[in-house]
TrEMBL record:
<keyword id="KW-0436">Ligase</keyword>
<protein>
    <recommendedName>
        <fullName>Phosphoribosylaminoimidazole-succinocarboxamide synthase</fullName>
        <ecNumber>6.3.2.6</ecNumber>
    </recommendedName>
</protein>
<dbReference type="Pfam" id="PF01259">
    <property type="entry name" value="SAICAR_synt"/>
</dbReference>
<feature type="domain" description="SAICAR synthetase/ADE2 N-terminal">
    <location>
        <begin position="2"/>
        <end position="195"/>
    </location>
</feature>
<dbReference type="InterPro" id="IPR050089">
    <property type="entry name" value="SAICAR_synthetase"/>
</dbReference>
<keyword id="KW-0547">Nucleotide-binding</keyword>
<dbReference type="InterPro" id="IPR018236">
    <property type="entry name" value="SAICAR_synthetase_CS"/>
</dbReference>
<keyword id="KW-0658">Purine biosynthesis</keyword>
<keyword id="KW-0067">ATP-binding</keyword>
<dbReference type="InterPro" id="IPR028923">
    <property type="entry name" value="SAICAR_synt/ADE2_N"/>
</dbReference>
<comment type="similarity">
    <text>Belongs to the SAICAR synthetase family.</text>
</comment>
<comment type="pathway">
    <text>Purine metabolism; IMP biosynthesis via de novo pathway; 5-amino-1-(5-phospho-D-ribosyl)imidazole-4-carboxamide from 5-amino-1-(5-phospho-D-ribosyl)imidazole-4-carboxylate: step 1/2.</text>
</comment>
Length: 220
């Protein structure tokens, strides 16, 4: 299937929305590069090749209706849930969370037991997804650390395949929080905090520059 990224940015469950010319291409390029990086480190994804512009070619899979979040630092909703943590405190170990994909309910946090009881996953599948998410975080954290950025947290989506679970959807500044040594965000937090579209695009251009160009381009 063809995955096409929009020139659009949203926040707060769609309450804030703007057109962002060129964002689709930046997101597609970065996702392609990140998927290639993950596969280089043995992490399976749905990615096939970069088609140019704002499009990727990907394999179609059965997506699990859960968002999987890995937190490396205390930030965002984790601080609201556990105010005893200090902002931007490095966690003793990465924390894996599951959130139900349901915009109307604000993508609520669910316990592992909830996901199993609802029939979304078996206990074995839950362990496999948690292990996959931690591998993704480890690969991406090392990559961005070498470029002077801290990976605060990330969100991935996963799908079933014939051989197990694969990472799908996107890996972009919309799904990762990345900060430099001065605490400056190069992710959608720029927009969430009230920054304009151009400020967001500047951050995404910097991410794309640091990541480099995708290598696996579609031919024919």
């Amino acid at each position: 299937m063809v995955l096409e990224f929009k020139d659009e940015v949203t926040a707060f469950d769609g309450k804030r929305r703007d057109t962002a010319p060129g964002k689709g291409e930046l997101a597609a390029r970065l996702s392609a590069r990140m998927f290639e990086l993950l596969e280089e480190h043995g992490v399976p994804t749905h990615y096939v090749c970069y088609m140019g512009g704002s499009r990727l070619l990907a394999r179609r899979h059965e997506v699990i209706p859960l968002e999987v979040i890995v937190r490396n630092y205390a930030y965002g909703s984790l601080l609201r849930r556990m105010p005893l943590l200090k902002p931007m405190e490095r966690l003793f170990r990465p924390l894996v969370e599951l959130h139900l994909k349901d915009d109307a309910r604000g993508d609520p946090l669910v316990l592992p037991e909830d996901a199993v009881e609802a029939g979304l996953l078996s206990w074995r599948e839950l362990w496999d997804i948690q292990s996959l998410a931690l591998r993704v975080s480890s690969v991406l954290e090392m990559f961005w650390r070498r470029r002077g950025l801290r990976l605060v947290d990330l969100k991935i989506e996963v799908a079933r395949s014939a051989t197990g679970f694969v990472v799908v959807d996107e890996v972009t500044g919309d799904t990762m929080r990345l900060v430099d040594s001065g605490g400056r965000h190069l992710d959608k937090e720029v927009y969430r905090r009230g920054g304009g579209v151009e400020a967001l695009l500047e951050a995404y251009r910097e991410l794309a520059r640091l990541a480099g160009e995708p290598e696996r381009r579609c031919t024919g």
